[in-house]
């Protein structure tokens, strides 16, 4: 099977020619949807992928990501969870590529994480479906990491965390990150994970296994722990070179605190990310007794789209 | 008793002439310590308070706040908790005001909130001592709100939250706040408090009183709830005019989640703040079954300094 796939996000346009699951052509540009106006999209698409359209007149064309948002080409309404390949395939939205050719925009997904609490994704639904997990937990790190609970090969529900964006705000635009120095000392990451343990909501396993009962659930609050990073630096307890990685560990650790409360804690799970980010999650999850497998985002994207298009 | 008091923070210089606990003169300028260089301080002080120095040659002079930090006039090392008026009085740091006159800088306070976790304050120690609470909990809202546990008239320990600064970052500099519109609809604040309940760490009282056991502790994670504010807006569940107050309610509610976990939950407590901020805390605390009394920051400052200077 041959298809043309565009991963068209806020800041990047990435086109792939895929044949029998292997990438045989690729193109990339910084013409993300945030850089474009309404009406720009067909021209940008043809400029980058026109040669593939002509060479393979029968290849289906799929577009994934923010291209289906209000800021994109055409709105592809969110598919409600549970959402599997067949549900997503039924919700594909056609767009006119010109020259009598049609493309299809993959919709995002929407779910009620908890009663009354809604969450949305756009693009990650395809990666989650392609992560190779029929039943279990998948994490997709990034600016806005997604944790996805898969059941029977479908996205059952998911939760988004603001981790990456919050790191940038606190590290680079806040009083908290101001004392930080570079080059960074990566040892700060594990200390940040330790700090997140103060917000893990339960007595530390090490205390309990030693027969020491913590006086109450540990949930000092993320807003307190963030100020604590500064307090530790200005009192000389945390070297300024460790502050950046400390904030990363603290925020990643608190994301994991939340996700392991919302979702059934697994013995093993899958992380869809490249190095070094995936390795940091592997380390953080190992401390919680969870074995993490790593899946490449590009492989997950191609596999996920293959599953959707295979629905006919 | 007559004294001259300067509350000299990061952005403001505020001088008071105090006689028998009443303010009989005041001066204010935007010459906070962040706007000054080393060596500027005596001149700025004399320009604003010189007439009082001459009129009252015996009045003690005290300086409170960031003026005692590394960025200030002279470093006044943090007093360790527990810290009462006598402890603070012993740690006052003299500075030369010129003309043979000396002033004294009030030190901040440092404490170990939990084993291994340090916190600091500078300026709020004086307000906490003057809040009129010998034993109990005091909250000082602001850019970096402080929760202070008082025991026997001394600051026993305290915790700082990043609430005000985080609100500014997420409302004005993040993807989360981007859909927000003005004029704001204040009804969003209570909805934000509701959302914070998803991170309160325990089954909702209303569920428990109805005999319904929540499946597990509620701690979805603040980073998830922040993204949820955006998800609720883009899916049309939260009107854009409510988003700003919603973020304020969410962050304030999660500050309270954390503080009521760290400190013994009281039946009543004291909020040192003016309107409308104090009223929002009163409302948020009432939902947790806590009655809040309001104390004016200026009264607390004058009373606290009076207690410190009365130590001789």
TrEMBL record, chains A, B:
| Record Pfam families | DGOK (PF05035)
| Entry superkingdom | Bacteria
Q: Which UniProt keywords apply?
A: Kinase, Transferase
> Is Kinase a UniProt keyword of this protein?
yes
Gene Ontology MF term list: 2-dehydro-3-deoxygalactonokinase activity
Q: Which GO terms describe its biological process?
A: D-galactonate catabolic process
**What's the name of the protein?**
2-dehydro-3-deoxygalactonokinase
Q: Which organism is the protein's source?
A: Salinarimonas soli
């Amino acid at each position: 099977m041959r298809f043309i796939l565009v991963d068209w996000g806020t800041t990047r346009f990435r086109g792939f020619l895929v044949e029998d699951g292997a990438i045989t052509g690729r193109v990339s540009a910084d013409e993300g949807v945030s850089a474009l106006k309404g009406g720009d999209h067909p021209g940008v698409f043809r400029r980058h992928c026109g040669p593939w359209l002509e060479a393979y007149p029968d290849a289906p064309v799929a577009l994934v990501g923010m291209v289906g948002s209000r800021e994109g080409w055409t709105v592809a309404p969110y598919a409600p969870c549970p959402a599997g390949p067949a549900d997503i395939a039924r919700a594909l939205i056609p767009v006119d590529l010109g020259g009598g050719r049609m493309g299809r925009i993959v919709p995002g997904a929407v779910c009620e994480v908890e009663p009354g609490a809604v969450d949305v994704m756009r693009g990650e639904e395809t990666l989650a479906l392609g992560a190779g997990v029929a039943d279990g937990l998948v994490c997709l790190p990034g600016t806005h990491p997604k944790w996805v609970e898969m059941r029977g090969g479908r996205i059952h529900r998911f939760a988004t965390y603001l981790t990456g964006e919050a790191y940038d705000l606190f590290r680079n635009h806040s009083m908290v990150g101001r004392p930080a120095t570079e080059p960074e000392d990566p040892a700060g990451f594990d200390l940040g994970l330790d700090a997140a343990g103060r917000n893990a909501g339960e007595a530390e396993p090490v205390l309990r296994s030693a027969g020491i009962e913590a006086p109450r659930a540990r949930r000092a609050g993320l807003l307190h722990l963030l100020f604590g990073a500064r307090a530790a630096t200005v009192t000389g307890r945390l070297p300024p070179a460790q502050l950046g990685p400390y904030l990363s560990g603290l925020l990643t650790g608190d994301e994991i605190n939340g996700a392991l409360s919302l979702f059934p804690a697994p013995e093993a799970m899958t992380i869809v990310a490249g190095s070094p980010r995936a390795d940091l999650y592997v380390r953080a999850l190992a401390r919680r007794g969870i074995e993490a497998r790593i899946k490449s985002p590009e492989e997950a994207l191609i596999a996920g789209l293959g599953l959707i298009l295979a629905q006919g």
